[in-house]
Design a protein that fits this description.
The chain is mostly helical and 404 residues long. It is 74% helix and 0% strand. It is built from 21 helices and no strands. The longest helix is centred in the first third of the chain and has 22 residues. The protein is elongated and about 75 Å long. The mean pLDDT is 88.
Length: 404
């Protein structure tokens, strides 16, 4: 459906249709319906959301309403970024077109949508520092717009993702607590769910609260089916597996991932590059953690699984995937090469992770170098001044080593 609608948009061009006033009013109602329902599905089922927003964009082009067209163009630019770096030029071109339309209309809400789309594009590209700047700007802009509760919450949620990736744990913990409290007070159980089990879950693990994370993961508490809401199921899977890794239950984590393999494929989540990268690194982490718990005779399939994840990450050809691949490959060297090779590779991995904006993972690798491999305190204290209750468990979750 998404491919068909994209092809139809390309064939129709940008010219508005000649419509009667009655036809125009009917199409405006349909545009707004596509917008509202599409926004609701963004955090539940991104593929359905994309199809709805593309339908709304086509209708907005038919009507030629400047505000609705600019709004739809902002969303289309963000959706175009989902395939990742290969689609960067297309996404930025659409964002530039949307920016021209937004300036013509001059609406504060459109300024917020433009900043939100810019932040999403940079988040999809792995440009986490710049993404947070635009997402924070979007949140502050929407706070000046009456009734923009969904937009505020979505910008805030994605900004927390960037903090998690960058390893800014004190700020993440403070902002996450406030965001969850606000969602809970409003009765927004789905919003609280996404905040807790999404990437910002690292704040719970840093506070040694894996059981709170596990308790938040079941979707039946929301009255939703994992088969119908693929993105929420994907978030719940990541939350559950990370909590199990933290608890030292790598065998259960591996079984959980294996059981979800067909559901992930059927949900068409892998068209998004960031999902592919995060899943490949998660599978690699689980394999390494499991290797630290079992006998050498059981290592062969885990080594093969980790190598497959490294190859998958390298194929993405983006800096943050390469940094994660380097980290997995270096950790694997403890089984397949030598301790010296592993240490050299992990040091290289720290540099790449920091350059890619993945400070949280860099801190985990640095802790492993200092406390497991005995490489002193070079590079400073992991996680800086952040209070991490069990740094050994957090490091083992984010960057496990296959050692006993």
């Amino acid at each position: 459906m998404v491919l068909v609608r994209r092809l139809a948009l390309r064939l129709r061009g940008l010219a508005p249709r000649s419509l009667s006033d009655e036809q125009r009013r009917g199409l405006v109602r349909r545009i707004d319906a596509c917008w509202v329902v599409g926004d609701l599905f963004v955090g539940l089922d991104p593929l359905r959301a994309t199809a709805l927003h593309l339908q709304g964009l086509s209708l907005a082009l038919d009507v030629g309403d400047p505000y609705r067209l600019a709004r739809s163009l902002c969303t289309d630019a963000a959706l175009a970024a989902q395939p990742g770096r290969s689609n960067r030029r297309t996404a930025l071109a659409r964002l530039t077109f949307a920016e021209r339309m937004c300036k013509q209309v001059g609406s504060p809400q459109l300024e917020g949508y433009l900043a939100l789309s810019h932040g999403i594009i940079q988040l999809m590209m792995g440009e986490f520092d710049d993404a947070q700047h635009h997402l924070d700007h979007a949140e502050s802009t929407f706070e000046r717009c009456p009734g923009a509760y969904w937009e505020i919450g979505y910008a805030r949620e994605l900004a927390l993702w960037t903090l998690a990736h960058r390893g800014r744990l004190p700020e993440l913990a403070q902002r996450l607590t406030a965001a969850v409290a606000l969602s809970t007070a409003r009765g927004d159980r789905v919003g609280a769910f996404k905040l807790l089990v999404g990437p910002s879950r690292v704040a719970l693990l840093a506070h040694d609260e894996p059981h709170q994370l596990l308790d938040a993961c079941p979707m039946d508490l929301l009255g939703l089916s994992p088969d119908e809401y693929s993105f929420l199921a994907f978030c719940a899977l990541f939350g559950r597996v990370n909590a199990l890794l933290y608890l030292g239950r790598a065998a259960d984590a591996l079984a959980t991932l294996d059981a979800a393999r067909w559901e992930i494929r059927a949900a068409h989540m892998m068209y998004c590059q960031s999902h592919r990268i995060e899943l490949a690194y998660l599978r690699g982490r689980v394999a390494l953690a499991r290797a630290s718990e079992c006998q050498p005779a059981e290592h062969a399939p885990l080594v093969a699984m980790t190598r497959k994840c490294v190859r998958s990450l390298r194929r993405e050809r983006v800096a943050w995937a390469d940094a994660l691949a380097t980290t997995l490959d270096a950790s694997l060297a403890l089984l397949t090469a030598s301790r010296e090779c592993a240490i050299a590779g992990l040091r290289e991995g720290v540099g790449k992770l920091e350059a890619a904006g993945l400070g949280g993972f860099a801190s985990a690798v640095r802790w492993q170098l200092q406390h497991v491999l005995g490489q002193g305190a070079e590079g400073g204290a992991p996680w800086g001044a952040a209070a991490v209750v069990r740094p050994d468990r957090l490091a083992h979750t984010l960057a496990p080593l296959p050692v006993y």
